[in-house]
């Protein structure tokens, strides 16, 4: 049976043979760790399962480090106690030998020898008082111990991460309710039912620092954290600053661990809602239409983004060199490379460098002979759907891009932009 060897769970991600740890330069294998922690002998050719779930895998390594630390601390304590007893015995023997050497008649009489003995023993007692006590030894040991494990427990402790969450959920068992409209199990049914109301009737929560409104307090808190406070964390893998390190590492660096998988293309997503948005790309449905033009979109978020960018002309990101503004921060970052002449993305096929990953991705298509998008009116094929849409203008003769200076219409937006620059803006700049 392919189940976890420890908790018998069906979710198996690791193998027992992957267990290994570096203990002061000595690498311990999986057999030593399992036998040391649980007293279980692992036989490699046995028919029993050797699989582990990710939770048990982390707990075994954590328990191994904890038990090793406990044994080291015990050995350290015993060694210090033994050394104290030996030092005390040696000190007493030295004092007795010194007294015996001074007890002769030529140096001291009997009365003076007694005084010397008392004086030496009083000195001995003072020396013993100066020695560290047991409490002082224990305080030093505790300090060393916590300094040793502080860094490990801070990041790697699997229980500390969910401590606050456990306290919050403690005592709430039995308070979960099922929504009759969508079938979801939620803690606060009253707040959840607001999501099923029409968008016009929902209560909106206004940001305290700007005019934006949100459907929930969590959405407003996230907006305030990113836009106004600028609080981000650095990813230890790619050194990028992101809002949520755990979600970023799952999506970008460990996508195989995501549990929501698309049946059509095999891509994995962090949540069911993200998967639902992706599934719309496999259909031709575009249910969200812009009320200011004839365009339609697969998701509401893309439609609202189109309205802000195209119709409302929102451009909040300003270039510090030429004062040109952009809708997205990503577009500003690409534009800045036109001033710095930076081209960090290199094509692995021909070695040519580009300023953005999008341009590199489009360039790499010329190195492949795969052209999946064919024209229905002629024999031409294209490697991208955008190229096919631009080509279809030559057949439909549709002209929907008017010049903002003279009103002349063009079939393609790049042709309109070229006309505006050559026919109108170039003369204005020259004047």
Automatic annotation (TrEMBL):
Binding residues annotated for Zn(2+), in chain numbering: 4, 7, 53, 56
Every ZAD domain range: 2-80
Domain C2H2-type: 205-233, 260-287, 288-316, 317-344, 345-372, 373-400, 401-424
A single GO cellular-component term on record: nucleus
A molecular-function term among this protein's GO annotations: DNA-binding transcription factor activity, RNA polymerase II-specific
A Pfam family matched in the record: zf-AD
Superkingdom, natural source: Eukaryota
Parts forming coiled coils: none
UniProt key word Repressor: no
Alphabetized PANTHER family for the sequence: KRUEPPEL-LIKE TRANSCRIPTION FACTOR, KRUPPEL-LIKE FACTOR 15
Protein name: Oocyte zinc finger protein XlCOF6.1-like
Organism for this UniProt entry: Galleria mellonella
């Amino acid at each position: 049976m392919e189940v976890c060897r420890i908790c018998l769970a069906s979710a198996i991600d690791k193998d027992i043979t992957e267990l290994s740890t570096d203990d002061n330069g000595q690498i311990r294998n999986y057999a030593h760790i399992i036998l040391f922690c649980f007293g279980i002998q692992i036989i490699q050719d046995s028919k029993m399962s050797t699989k582990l779930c990710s939770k048990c895998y982390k707990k075994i390594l954590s328990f191994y480090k904890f038990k090793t630390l406990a044994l080291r601390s015990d050995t350290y304590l015993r060694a210090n106690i033994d050394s104290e007893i030996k030092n005390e015995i040696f000190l007493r023997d030295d004092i007795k030998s010194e007294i015996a050497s001074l007890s002769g008649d030529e140096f001291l009489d009997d009365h003076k020898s007694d005084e010397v003995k008392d004086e030496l023993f009083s000195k001995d007692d003072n020396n013993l008082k100066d020695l560290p006590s047991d409490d002082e030894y224990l305080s030093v040991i505790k300090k060393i111990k916590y300094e040793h494990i502080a860094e490990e427990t801070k990041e790697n402790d699997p229980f500390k991460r969910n401590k606050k969450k456990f306290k919050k959920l403690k005592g709430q068992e039995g308070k979960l309710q099922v929504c009759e409209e969508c079938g979801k199990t939620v803690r606060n049914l009253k707040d959840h039912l607001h999501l099923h109301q029409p968008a016009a009737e929902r209560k909106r929560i206004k940001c305290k620092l700007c005019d934006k409104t949100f459907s929930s307090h969590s959405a407003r808190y996230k907006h305030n954290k990113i836009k106004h406070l600028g609080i981000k964390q650095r990813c230890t893998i790619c050194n990028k600053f992101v809002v949520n390190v755990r979600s970023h590492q799952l999506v970008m660096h460990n996508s195989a661990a995501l549990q929501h998988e698309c049946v059509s293309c095999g891509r994995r997503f962090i949540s069911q809602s993200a998967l639902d948005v992706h599934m719309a790309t496999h259909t031709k449905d575009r249910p969200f239409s812009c009320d200011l033009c004839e365009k339609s979109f697969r998701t509401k978020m893309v439609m609202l983004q189109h309205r802000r960018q195209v119709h409302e002309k929102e451009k909040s990101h300003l270039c510090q060199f030429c004062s040109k503004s952009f809708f997205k921060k990503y577009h500003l970052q690409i534009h800045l490379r036109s001033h710095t002449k930076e081209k960090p993305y290199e094509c692995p096929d021909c070695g040519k460098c580009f300023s953005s990953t999008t341009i590199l991705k489009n360039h790499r298509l010329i190195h492949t002979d795969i052209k999946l998008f064919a024209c229905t009116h002629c024999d031409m094929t294209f490697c991208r759907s955008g190229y096919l849409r631009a080509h279809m203008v030559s057949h439909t003769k549709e002209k929907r891009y008017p010049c903002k200076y003279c009103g002349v219409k063009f079939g393609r937006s790049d042709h309109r932009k070229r006309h505006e620059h050559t026919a109108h803006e170039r003369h204005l700049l020259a004047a």
